[in-house]
């Protein structure tokens, strides 16, 4: 799993109960959907601001979000641990510079205990509908359990990587072998001695492949587009450093600041086409040449697009795994699936005992994870069909008192997701406090402010590497980039530092 892909299966959301058993709960001040990093961080900052009437709805039986669900072999973050954690809750005991999913999940669970958050969480409550009641000025969340939870303000913190999806491959339903998705790993399946196919060579796949190649009798990797891969400076954390961080917390803050600034400088290579871009490409080519000696394989793994256009991957063991005797890379396009396996464009059927789909998620720029209905009965998924839009990525016109985390155009390409998330959370706290302090019925961003913001964002995006011509999940089918933020994390934090009331319509209670 990456800055974005345990030994148990993710919990299945509870089944729907009959409509006659609907149970309405007392309205809270703030209703939060999701108990992952975003939802829990929002609850912490609200609590610290004196707002404690909070309800968090979690579809599973435990916290963790994407780090709970993505527990495939090798799952880890591609951002240093000291940066991929909250600045207001730093962990001095990270075991290594880049932590695995189990350790990150442990950090999340420990955070729940430290800030006494479990009292806010309602587990096994999968939201099936979120609707705004204009008469009362509250949001109502209906769950599969038949419960209705309400809040004066609502926060969608379910995350952009919350709903996994199998790819749209012809004949996928005919395949008789075992199927596994990277976001719903089957820990009961024994890969030892099996013929295994892996579809995808993205952020999750390059972590899974080095682990599977150890067990499978034959591993076949299907690549559509090669990625830029750079080295991963991963080291064990020495005991003296942990002791120093515990004794002098300012030393850890200083390291975090240094990591932040180092990643900020990477924006010059990743976001825009500059001399730094050429240096980054040289690093990627050097890493490939150093680890892959076979010229033909190296050619197959060499990207033909500018670095940064797609997500840059970080790995030391992906290239070596592809060169193991029991591993084979296939670059022919997949035409369809059969009962026994996968057929590729040159007419060969590749037969497998199991196929692993490391094919990504239903990213929110093309819809919403559940129906969201705003003022006048408008539906957010319909409005977002051709690309999501929001004001500062966090508010949407026509959806009063609703706040998003990792909303449209808030994706980082070079820095920690949690840096951006902290800016969003602080903005949400400002918004909720404004509703309470001014006793507002609704706080709703003006449509013209949202349009002006998005017009500027898209103009800036047109000059970035993400929009330079390659096909990626950053873009909609129409080529609209509704995912990434075209600037430094520092710029993003600056835009989120103030809540401009002139851009909002305020209606008193």
TrEMBL record:
<protein>
    <submittedName>
        <fullName>Monooxygenase</fullName>
    </submittedName>
</protein>
<keyword id="KW-0560">Oxidoreductase</keyword>
<keyword id="KW-0503">Monooxygenase</keyword>
<dbReference type="InterPro" id="IPR051209">
    <property type="entry name" value="FAD-bind_Monooxygenase_sf"/>
</dbReference>
<dbReference type="InterPro" id="IPR036188">
    <property type="entry name" value="FAD/NAD-bd_sf"/>
</dbReference>
<dbReference type="Pfam" id="PF13738">
    <property type="entry name" value="Pyr_redox_3"/>
</dbReference>
<feature type="region of interest" description="Disordered">
    <location>
        <begin position="1"/>
        <end position="22"/>
    </location>
</feature>
<dbReference type="GO" id="GO:0004497">
    <property type="term" value="F:monooxygenase activity"/>
</dbReference>
């Amino acid at each position: 799993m990456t800055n974005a892909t345990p030994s148990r299966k993710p919990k299945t959301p509870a089944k729907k109960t009959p409509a006659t058993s609907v149970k309405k709960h007392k309205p809270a001040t703030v209703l939060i959907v999701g108990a992952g990093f975003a939802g829990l961080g929002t609850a912490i900052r609200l609590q610290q601001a004196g707002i404690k009437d909070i309800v968090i709805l979690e579809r599973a039986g435990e916290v963790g979000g994407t780090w709970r669900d993505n527990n495939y072999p090798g799952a880890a973050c591609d951002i240093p641990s000291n940066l991929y954690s909250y600045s207001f809750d730093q962990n001095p005991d990270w075991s290594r510079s880049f932590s695995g999913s189990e350790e990150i999940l442990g950090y999340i669970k420990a955070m729940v205990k430290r800030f006494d958050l479990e009292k806010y969480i309602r587990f096994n409550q999968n939201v099936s509908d979120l609707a705004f009641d204009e008469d009362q000025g509250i949001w109502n969340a209906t769950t599969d359990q038949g419960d209705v939870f309400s809040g004066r303000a609502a926060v969608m913190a379910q995350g952009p990587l919350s709903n996994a999806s199998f790819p749209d491959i012809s004949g996928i339903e005919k395949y008789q072998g075992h199927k596994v998705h990277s976001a719903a790993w089957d820990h009961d399946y024994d890969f030892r001695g099996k013929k295994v196919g892996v579809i995808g060579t993205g952020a999750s796949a390059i972590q899974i492949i080095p682990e599977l190649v150890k067990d499978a009798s034959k591993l076949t990797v299907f690549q559509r587009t090669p990625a830029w891969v750079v080295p991963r400076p991963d080291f064990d954390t020495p005991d003296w450093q942990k002791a120093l961080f515990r004794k002098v917390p300012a030393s850890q803050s200083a390291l975090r600041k240094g990591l932040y600034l180092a990643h900020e400088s990477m924006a010059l290579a990743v976001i825009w086409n500059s001399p730094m871009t050429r240096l980054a490409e040289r690093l990627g080519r050097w890493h490939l040449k150093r680890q892959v000696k076979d010229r033909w394989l190296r050619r197959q793994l060499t990207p033909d697009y500018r670095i940064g256009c797609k997500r840059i991957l970080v790995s030391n063991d992906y290239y070596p795994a592809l060169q193991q005797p029991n591993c084979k890379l296939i670059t022919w396009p997949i035409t369809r699936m059969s009962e026994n396996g996968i057929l590729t464009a040159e007419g060969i059927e590749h037969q497998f005992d199991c196929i692993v789909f490391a094919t990504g998620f239903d990213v929110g720029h093309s819809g919403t994870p559940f129906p969201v209905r705003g003022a006048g009965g408008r539906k957010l998924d319909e409005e977002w069909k051709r690309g999501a839009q929001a004001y500062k990525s966090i508010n949407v016109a026509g959806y009063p008192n609703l706040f998003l985390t990792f909303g449209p155009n808030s994706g980082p390409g070079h820095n920690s997701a949690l840096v951006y998330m902290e800016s969003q959370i602080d903005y949400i706290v400002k918004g909720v406090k404004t509703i309470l302090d001014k006793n507002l019925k609704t706080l709703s961003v003006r449509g013209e402010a949202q349009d002006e913001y998005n017009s500027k964002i898209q103009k800036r995006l047109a000059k970035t590497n993400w929009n330079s011509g390659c096909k990626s999940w950053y873009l909609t089918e129409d080529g609209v980039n509704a995912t990434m933020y075209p600037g430094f994390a520092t710029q993003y934090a600056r835009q989120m530092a103030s809540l401009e009331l002139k851009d909002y319509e305020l209606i008193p209670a």
